[in-house]
Amino acid sequence: MTQPRPTVVLIFGGASSEHEISCLTAGGVLRAIDGCDVVAVGITAAGDWVRVPLETVAGYQVTDGALPRVAEDLPQAVLLRGPRGAQIGTREGDRLTDLVDIDLAFALLHGPYGEDGTIQGLFEMLGVRYVGAGVAASAIGMDKDLMKRAMWSAGLPVGRWVAINPGHWQRDPERWTAAVTGLGYPVFVKPARGGSSLGISRVDTPEQLPAAIELALRYDPKIVVEAGFVGCREIEIAVLQGRDGQPPRPSVPGEIVLHRHDMFYDFESKYLGDEDVTLDTPAKLTPEQTEQARALAARTFDAMNVEGLARVDLFLNPVGEFFVNELNTMPGFTRTSMFPLLWQASGLGYSALVGELIDLGLAQRPGLR
Ligand SMILES: Nc1ncnc2c1ncn2[C@@H]1O[C@H](COP(=O)(O)OP(=O)(O)O)[C@@H](O)[C@H]1O
Ligand SMILES: [Mg+2]
Fold first, then answer.
1. Which tens digits make up the pLDDT trace of 164-195?
2. What is the atom index within ligand 1 of the atom nearest the CA of 226?
3. Fewer CB in a 10 Å sphere around the end CB: N or C, the chain?
4. Which fold has domain 7-132?
5. Domain 139-157+231-329 architecture
6. Which of 25-29, 92-96, 152-156, 365-369 has the lowest mean pLDDT?
7. Which of 22-37 are b and which e, b meaning 16 or more Cβ less than 10 Å from the residue's Cβ?
8. Which class is domain 161-227?
9. Atom 11 of ligand 1 has which residue's CA nearest to it?
Protein backbone atom coordinates (compact mmCIF):
# COMPACT_ATOMS: atom_id res chain seq x y z
CA MET A 1 0.00 0.00 0.00
CA THR A 2 1.22 3.49 -0.81
CA GLN A 3 -0.68 4.85 2.22
CA PRO A 4 -0.62 3.51 5.80
CA ARG A 5 -4.19 2.25 5.95
CA PRO A 6 -6.42 3.72 3.29
CA THR A 7 -10.22 3.73 3.56
CA VAL A 8 -11.84 2.21 0.49
CA VAL A 9 -15.52 2.50 -0.38
CA LEU A 10 -16.85 -0.49 -2.32
CA ILE A 11 -19.87 0.41 -4.44
CA PHE A 12 -21.93 -2.42 -5.90
CA GLY A 13 -25.36 -3.64 -7.02
CA GLY A 14 -26.80 -1.00 -9.31
CA ALA A 15 -29.81 -0.45 -11.51
CA SER A 16 -28.51 -2.59 -14.40
CA SER A 17 -29.28 -6.17 -15.38
CA GLU A 18 -25.98 -7.19 -13.78
CA HIS A 19 -27.05 -6.24 -10.20
CA GLU A 20 -26.60 -9.73 -8.72
CA ILE A 21 -23.29 -10.39 -10.48
CA SER A 22 -22.01 -7.11 -9.03
CA CYS A 23 -23.07 -8.21 -5.50
CA LEU A 24 -21.26 -11.52 -5.96
CA THR A 25 -18.14 -9.60 -6.99
CA ALA A 26 -18.44 -7.34 -3.93
CA GLY A 27 -18.56 -10.40 -1.64
CA GLY A 28 -15.47 -11.84 -3.33
CA VAL A 29 -13.52 -8.57 -3.21
CA LEU A 30 -14.40 -7.85 0.43
CA ARG A 31 -13.32 -11.33 1.55
CA ALA A 32 -10.02 -10.87 -0.32
CA ILE A 33 -9.18 -7.26 0.59
CA ASP A 34 -6.28 -6.74 2.95
CA GLY A 35 -4.63 -3.77 4.66
CA CYS A 36 -7.53 -1.34 4.13
CA ASP A 37 -10.55 -0.10 6.04
CA VAL A 38 -13.65 -0.77 4.00
CA VAL A 39 -17.04 0.95 3.81
CA ALA A 40 -19.77 -0.72 1.74
CA VAL A 41 -22.35 1.17 -0.27
CA GLY A 42 -24.99 -0.75 -2.16
CA ILE A 43 -27.10 0.64 -4.97
CA THR A 44 -30.52 -1.04 -4.94
CA ALA A 45 -32.15 -2.26 -8.13
CA ALA A 46 -34.36 0.86 -7.88
CA GLY A 47 -31.23 3.06 -7.82
CA ASP A 48 -31.18 4.06 -4.11
CA TRP A 49 -27.83 4.28 -2.30
CA VAL A 50 -27.70 2.43 1.03
CA ARG A 51 -25.10 1.67 3.70
CA VAL A 52 -24.62 -2.12 3.85
CA PRO A 53 -23.04 -3.77 6.94
CA LEU A 54 -19.71 -5.45 6.09
CA GLU A 55 -20.91 -8.81 7.52
CA THR A 56 -23.76 -8.76 5.01
CA VAL A 57 -21.44 -8.11 2.06
CA ALA A 58 -18.98 -10.75 3.25
CA GLY A 59 -21.87 -13.25 3.12
CA TYR A 60 -22.84 -12.45 -0.49
CA GLN A 61 -22.57 -15.71 -2.43
CA VAL A 62 -24.70 -18.13 -4.41
CA THR A 63 -26.95 -19.88 -1.85
CA ASP A 64 -29.11 -22.78 -3.12
CA GLY A 65 -28.93 -21.35 -6.63
CA ALA A 66 -30.11 -17.88 -5.47
CA LEU A 67 -27.98 -14.80 -6.15
CA PRO A 68 -27.46 -11.98 -3.59
CA ARG A 69 -29.18 -8.59 -3.94
CA VAL A 70 -28.86 -5.26 -2.12
CA ALA A 71 -31.69 -5.07 0.48
CA GLU A 72 -34.08 -2.12 0.13
CA ASP A 73 -34.62 -1.48 3.86
CA LEU A 74 -31.10 -0.27 4.84
CA PRO A 75 -30.22 3.29 5.94
CA GLN A 76 -29.55 5.74 3.13
CA ALA A 77 -25.88 6.37 2.24
CA VAL A 78 -24.79 9.89 1.34
CA LEU A 79 -21.61 10.53 -0.63
CA LEU A 80 -20.43 14.13 -0.34
CA ARG A 81 -17.50 16.46 -0.78
CA GLY A 82 -16.29 17.17 2.74
CA PRO A 83 -13.65 19.63 3.97
CA ARG A 84 -10.74 17.21 3.27
CA GLY A 85 -12.14 15.34 0.28
CA ALA A 86 -14.89 12.79 -0.23
CA GLN A 87 -16.90 11.45 2.71
CA ILE A 88 -19.57 8.83 3.21
CA GLY A 89 -22.32 9.38 5.75
CA THR A 90 -25.54 7.74 6.82
CA ARG A 91 -28.79 9.70 6.77
CA GLU A 92 -30.95 9.46 9.86
CA GLY A 93 -34.00 11.63 9.40
CA ASP A 94 -32.54 15.07 8.66
CA ARG A 95 -29.17 14.29 10.29
CA LEU A 96 -25.96 12.85 8.84
CA THR A 97 -24.17 10.37 11.09
CA ASP A 98 -21.21 8.07 10.93
CA LEU A 99 -19.17 10.29 8.56
CA VAL A 100 -16.06 8.59 7.16
CA ASP A 101 -13.26 10.13 5.03
CA ILE A 102 -12.67 8.15 1.84
CA ASP A 103 -9.27 7.66 0.17
CA LEU A 104 -10.37 5.51 -2.73
CA ALA A 105 -13.61 4.58 -4.50
CA PHE A 106 -13.86 1.09 -5.99
CA ALA A 107 -17.04 0.75 -8.09
CA LEU A 108 -17.77 -2.89 -8.89
CA LEU A 109 -20.60 -2.00 -11.24
CA HIS A 110 -21.16 -3.44 -14.71
CA GLY A 111 -22.98 -1.86 -17.63
CA PRO A 112 -24.73 1.52 -17.89
CA TYR A 113 -24.72 3.71 -14.73
CA GLY A 114 -21.39 2.46 -13.44
CA GLU A 115 -19.07 1.12 -16.15
CA ASP A 116 -19.91 3.94 -18.55
CA GLY A 117 -18.22 7.04 -17.12
CA THR A 118 -21.21 8.29 -15.12
CA ILE A 119 -20.01 7.31 -11.64
CA GLN A 120 -16.41 8.08 -12.66
CA GLY A 121 -17.60 11.66 -13.34
CA LEU A 122 -19.12 11.80 -9.85
CA PHE A 123 -15.82 10.67 -8.30
CA GLU A 124 -13.95 13.40 -10.19
CA MET A 125 -16.45 16.04 -8.99
CA LEU A 126 -15.95 14.82 -5.40
CA GLY A 127 -12.16 14.87 -5.76
CA VAL A 128 -11.73 11.23 -4.76
CA ARG A 129 -9.28 8.77 -6.33
CA TYR A 130 -10.90 5.73 -7.93
CA VAL A 131 -10.04 2.34 -9.39
CA GLY A 132 -10.22 1.81 -13.15
CA ALA A 133 -10.71 3.75 -16.35
CA GLY A 134 -11.50 7.49 -16.44
CA VAL A 135 -14.66 9.21 -17.68
CA ALA A 136 -13.95 9.29 -21.41
CA ALA A 137 -12.37 5.83 -21.69
CA SER A 138 -15.27 4.31 -19.69
CA ALA A 139 -17.90 6.04 -21.85
CA ILE A 140 -16.21 5.09 -25.11
CA GLY A 141 -15.66 1.50 -23.94
CA MET A 142 -19.35 1.16 -23.12
CA ASP A 143 -20.64 2.32 -26.52
CA LYS A 144 -19.97 -0.29 -29.20
CA ASP A 145 -20.18 2.36 -31.95
CA LEU A 146 -17.83 4.93 -30.34
CA MET A 147 -15.53 2.08 -29.27
CA LYS A 148 -15.17 0.75 -32.80
CA ARG A 149 -14.65 4.23 -34.23
CA ALA A 150 -11.83 4.87 -31.73
CA MET A 151 -10.25 1.48 -32.40
CA TRP A 152 -10.54 1.87 -36.16
CA SER A 153 -8.93 5.31 -36.12
CA ALA A 154 -6.10 3.96 -33.93
CA GLY A 155 -5.38 1.37 -36.63
CA LEU A 156 -6.62 -1.59 -34.58
CA PRO A 157 -8.17 -4.49 -36.53
CA VAL A 158 -11.97 -4.34 -36.07
CA GLY A 159 -14.82 -5.82 -38.12
CA ARG A 160 -17.22 -3.72 -40.19
CA TRP A 161 -20.33 -2.29 -38.55
CA VAL A 162 -23.27 0.11 -38.99
CA ALA A 163 -24.77 2.24 -36.18
CA ILE A 164 -28.53 2.91 -36.34
CA ASN A 165 -30.61 5.41 -34.35
CA PRO A 166 -34.33 4.58 -33.93
CA GLY A 167 -35.51 7.63 -35.89
CA HIS A 168 -33.34 6.68 -38.87
CA TRP A 169 -34.64 3.11 -38.89
CA GLN A 170 -38.29 4.23 -38.71
CA ARG A 171 -37.87 6.84 -41.45
CA ASP A 172 -36.06 4.70 -43.97
CA PRO A 173 -35.92 0.96 -43.22
CA GLU A 174 -35.02 0.11 -46.85
CA ARG A 175 -31.93 2.26 -46.78
CA TRP A 176 -30.71 0.74 -43.50
CA THR A 177 -31.52 -2.80 -44.62
CA ALA A 178 -29.37 -2.15 -47.70
CA ALA A 179 -26.54 -0.82 -45.51
CA VAL A 180 -26.72 -3.94 -43.33
CA THR A 181 -26.88 -6.24 -46.35
CA GLY A 182 -23.66 -4.54 -47.53
CA LEU A 183 -21.92 -6.03 -44.46
CA GLY A 184 -22.82 -9.57 -45.63
CA TYR A 185 -24.88 -12.07 -43.59
CA PRO A 186 -24.80 -13.29 -40.90
CA VAL A 187 -24.76 -10.06 -38.89
CA PHE A 188 -25.02 -9.46 -35.14
CA VAL A 189 -27.55 -6.87 -33.96
CA LYS A 190 -26.74 -5.34 -30.56
CA PRO A 191 -27.84 -2.59 -28.16
CA ALA A 192 -24.92 -0.11 -28.47
CA ARG A 193 -24.46 0.16 -24.70
CA GLY A 194 -25.55 -3.28 -23.57
CA GLY A 195 -23.63 -5.98 -21.76
CA SER A 196 -23.97 -9.63 -20.78
CA SER A 197 -25.16 -10.36 -24.33
CA LEU A 198 -28.68 -9.08 -23.47
CA GLY A 199 -30.67 -7.97 -26.53
CA ILE A 200 -28.12 -9.40 -29.00
CA SER A 201 -29.24 -11.58 -31.92
CA ARG A 202 -27.61 -13.27 -34.84
CA VAL A 203 -29.41 -12.48 -38.11
CA ASP A 204 -28.98 -14.68 -41.19
CA THR A 205 -31.44 -13.08 -43.64
CA PRO A 206 -32.81 -9.54 -44.29
CA GLU A 207 -36.29 -10.79 -43.25
CA GLN A 208 -35.06 -11.42 -39.69
CA LEU A 209 -33.58 -7.93 -39.36
CA PRO A 210 -36.67 -5.89 -38.19
CA ALA A 211 -37.42 -8.24 -35.26
CA ALA A 212 -33.76 -8.21 -34.15
CA ILE A 213 -33.68 -4.40 -34.31
CA GLU A 214 -36.95 -4.18 -32.31
CA LEU A 215 -35.46 -6.47 -29.64
CA ALA A 216 -32.21 -4.46 -29.38
CA LEU A 217 -34.20 -1.20 -29.19
CA ARG A 218 -35.90 -2.49 -26.02
CA TYR A 219 -32.50 -2.23 -24.31
CA ASP A 220 -31.07 0.90 -25.88
CA PRO A 221 -32.27 3.62 -28.27
CA LYS A 222 -28.97 3.26 -30.17
CA ILE A 223 -28.00 -0.01 -31.83
CA VAL A 224 -25.12 -1.40 -33.84
CA VAL A 225 -25.13 -4.09 -36.51
CA GLU A 226 -21.85 -5.91 -37.04
CA ALA A 227 -20.56 -8.23 -39.74
CA GLY A 228 -20.52 -11.74 -38.24
CA PHE A 229 -17.20 -13.43 -37.52
CA VAL A 230 -18.03 -16.92 -38.76
CA GLY A 231 -15.95 -19.91 -37.73
CA CYS A 232 -13.80 -17.76 -35.44
CA ARG A 233 -12.44 -18.58 -31.99
CA GLU A 234 -13.13 -16.19 -29.07
CA ILE A 235 -9.93 -15.29 -27.22
CA GLU A 236 -9.88 -13.01 -24.13
CA ILE A 237 -7.01 -11.30 -22.36
CA ALA A 238 -7.01 -9.60 -18.94
CA VAL A 239 -4.90 -6.43 -18.97
CA LEU A 240 -3.57 -4.47 -15.99
CA GLN A 241 -2.17 -0.97 -16.20
CA GLY A 242 1.62 -0.83 -15.86
CA ARG A 243 3.03 0.54 -12.61
CA ASP A 244 4.70 3.98 -12.63
CA GLY A 245 4.05 4.69 -16.32
CA GLN A 246 5.28 1.28 -17.51
CA PRO A 247 3.46 -0.39 -20.47
CA PRO A 248 0.24 -2.36 -19.84
CA ARG A 249 0.57 -5.94 -18.61
CA PRO A 250 -1.41 -8.57 -20.56
CA SER A 251 -2.27 -11.91 -18.93
CA VAL A 252 -2.05 -15.24 -20.70
CA PRO A 253 -4.90 -15.55 -23.26
CA GLY A 254 -8.03 -17.57 -22.46
CA GLU A 255 -10.64 -19.01 -24.78
CA ILE A 256 -14.43 -19.22 -24.64
CA VAL A 257 -15.04 -22.64 -26.16
CA LEU A 258 -18.58 -23.09 -27.49
CA HIS A 259 -19.43 -26.75 -28.08
CA ARG A 260 -22.36 -26.15 -30.44
CA HIS A 261 -22.01 -24.40 -33.77
CA ASP A 262 -25.48 -22.81 -33.71
CA MET A 263 -24.87 -20.82 -30.52
CA PHE A 264 -23.01 -17.74 -29.34
CA TYR A 265 -21.80 -16.63 -25.92
CA ASP A 266 -25.20 -15.44 -24.66
CA PHE A 267 -26.55 -14.56 -21.19
CA GLU A 268 -27.36 -18.18 -20.22
CA SER A 269 -23.95 -19.48 -21.18
CA LYS A 270 -22.25 -16.59 -19.34
CA TYR A 271 -23.95 -16.97 -15.96
CA LEU A 272 -26.12 -20.04 -15.72
CA GLY A 273 -23.45 -22.71 -15.93
CA ASP A 274 -24.26 -23.92 -19.44
CA GLU A 275 -22.38 -27.16 -20.12
CA ASP A 276 -22.06 -26.19 -23.80
CA VAL A 277 -19.42 -23.59 -22.84
CA THR A 278 -16.01 -23.98 -21.23
CA LEU A 279 -13.43 -21.35 -20.30
CA ASP A 280 -9.99 -22.56 -21.35
CA THR A 281 -7.16 -20.89 -19.40
CA PRO A 282 -4.68 -20.67 -20.95
CA ALA A 283 -6.08 -20.92 -24.50
CA LYS A 284 -4.56 -23.58 -26.73
CA LEU A 285 -2.64 -21.30 -29.09
CA THR A 286 0.79 -21.52 -30.68
CA PRO A 287 3.52 -19.48 -28.92
CA GLU A 288 3.41 -16.98 -31.83
CA GLN A 289 -0.38 -16.62 -31.59
CA THR A 290 -0.13 -16.19 -27.82
CA GLU A 291 2.35 -13.34 -28.24
CA GLN A 292 0.29 -11.74 -31.05
CA ALA A 293 -2.87 -11.84 -28.91
CA ARG A 294 -1.11 -10.38 -25.85
CA ALA A 295 0.52 -7.62 -27.91
CA LEU A 296 -2.79 -6.70 -29.55
CA ALA A 297 -4.54 -6.57 -26.15
CA ALA A 298 -1.83 -4.30 -24.71
CA ARG A 299 -1.97 -2.07 -27.81
CA THR A 300 -5.77 -1.82 -27.48
CA PHE A 301 -5.51 -0.91 -23.77
CA ASP A 302 -3.03 1.86 -24.62
CA ALA A 303 -4.89 3.18 -27.66
CA MET A 304 -8.15 3.44 -25.70
CA ASN A 305 -6.45 5.30 -22.82
CA VAL A 306 -7.70 2.85 -20.22
CA GLU A 307 -6.43 2.89 -16.63
CA GLY A 308 -6.44 0.17 -13.98
CA LEU A 309 -7.86 -2.84 -15.74
CA ALA A 310 -9.69 -4.03 -18.84
CA ARG A 311 -10.55 -7.31 -20.51
CA VAL A 312 -9.86 -7.26 -24.24
CA ASP A 313 -11.93 -9.74 -26.28
CA LEU A 314 -10.62 -10.92 -29.64
CA PHE A 315 -11.77 -13.08 -32.55
CA LEU A 316 -9.24 -15.39 -34.21
CA ASN A 317 -10.27 -16.30 -37.75
CA PRO A 318 -9.49 -19.60 -39.48
CA VAL A 319 -6.49 -18.11 -41.34
CA GLY A 320 -4.90 -16.96 -38.08
CA GLU A 321 -5.77 -13.23 -38.00
CA PHE A 322 -6.88 -11.51 -34.79
CA PHE A 323 -9.63 -8.87 -34.59
CA VAL A 324 -10.77 -6.87 -31.55
CA ASN A 325 -14.42 -7.53 -30.62
CA GLU A 326 -14.62 -5.36 -27.53
CA LEU A 327 -12.97 -3.94 -24.46
CA ASN A 328 -14.63 -4.09 -21.01
CA THR A 329 -13.45 -1.54 -18.46
CA MET A 330 -15.14 -3.32 -15.52
CA PRO A 331 -15.18 -6.97 -16.53
CA GLY A 332 -16.87 -9.71 -14.48
CA PHE A 333 -14.79 -10.02 -11.32
CA THR A 334 -16.11 -12.90 -9.22
CA ARG A 335 -13.59 -15.61 -8.34
CA THR A 336 -14.82 -17.73 -11.25
CA SER A 337 -14.90 -14.90 -13.83
CA MET A 338 -12.52 -14.84 -16.77
CA PHE A 339 -10.52 -11.79 -15.60
CA PRO A 340 -9.35 -13.24 -12.24
CA LEU A 341 -8.98 -16.75 -13.76
CA LEU A 342 -6.63 -15.37 -16.41
CA TRP A 343 -4.51 -13.65 -13.77
CA GLN A 344 -4.55 -16.80 -11.66
CA ALA A 345 -3.19 -18.68 -14.70
CA SER A 346 -0.58 -15.92 -15.09
CA GLY A 347 0.62 -16.28 -11.50
CA LEU A 348 -1.36 -13.53 -9.72
CA GLY A 349 -4.00 -14.87 -7.29
CA TYR A 350 -7.34 -13.20 -6.49
CA SER A 351 -6.26 -11.35 -3.31
CA ALA A 352 -3.03 -10.12 -4.88
CA LEU A 353 -5.03 -8.93 -7.90
CA VAL A 354 -7.44 -6.96 -5.69
CA GLY A 355 -4.42 -5.44 -3.87
CA GLU A 356 -2.85 -4.50 -7.19
CA LEU A 357 -6.01 -2.69 -8.37
CA ILE A 358 -6.19 -0.77 -5.09
CA ASP A 359 -2.53 0.24 -5.38
CA LEU A 360 -3.03 1.37 -8.99
CA GLY A 361 -6.09 3.41 -7.94
CA LEU A 362 -4.24 5.06 -5.02
CA ALA A 363 -1.39 5.99 -7.39
CA GLN A 364 -3.79 8.02 -9.61
CA ARG A 365 -4.26 11.71 -8.98
CA PRO A 366 -7.72 12.89 -7.93
CA GLY A 367 -9.76 14.99 -10.38
CA LEU A 368 -8.83 15.31 -14.01
CA ARG A 369 -6.31 12.66 -14.97
N1 LIG B 1 -19.56 -9.80 -34.92
C2 LIG B 1 -19.74 -10.99 -34.29
N3 LIG B 1 -19.48 -12.16 -34.93
C4 LIG B 1 -19.65 -13.36 -34.30
N5 LIG B 1 -20.07 -13.49 -33.04
C6 LIG B 1 -20.35 -12.36 -32.35
C7 LIG B 1 -20.19 -11.06 -32.94
N8 LIG B 1 -20.52 -10.15 -32.03
C9 LIG B 1 -20.88 -10.82 -30.92
N10 LIG B 1 -20.79 -12.15 -31.11
C11 LIG B 1 -21.12 -13.18 -30.09
O12 LIG B 1 -21.96 -12.58 -29.10
C13 LIG B 1 -21.30 -12.50 -27.83
C14 LIG B 1 -21.65 -11.20 -27.11
O15 LIG B 1 -21.30 -10.09 -27.90
P16 LIG B 1 -20.44 -8.88 -27.32
O17 LIG B 1 -20.24 -7.89 -28.42
O18 LIG B 1 -19.23 -9.40 -26.67
O19 LIG B 1 -21.47 -8.23 -26.29
P20 LIG B 1 -21.46 -8.05 -24.69
O21 LIG B 1 -20.94 -6.66 -24.47
O22 LIG B 1 -22.88 -8.20 -24.30
O23 LIG B 1 -20.54 -9.11 -24.12
C24 LIG B 1 -19.82 -12.65 -28.16
O25 LIG B 1 -19.09 -13.15 -27.06
C26 LIG B 1 -19.88 -13.63 -29.35
O27 LIG B 1 -20.12 -14.97 -28.89
MG1 LIG C 1 -18.62 -9.59 -24.69
1. 988 888 899 999 999 999 999 999 999 999 77
2. 1
3. N
4. Rossmann fold (3.40.50)
5. 2-Layer Sandwich (3.30)
6. 365-369
7. bbbbbbbbbbbbeebe
8. alpha beta
9. 264
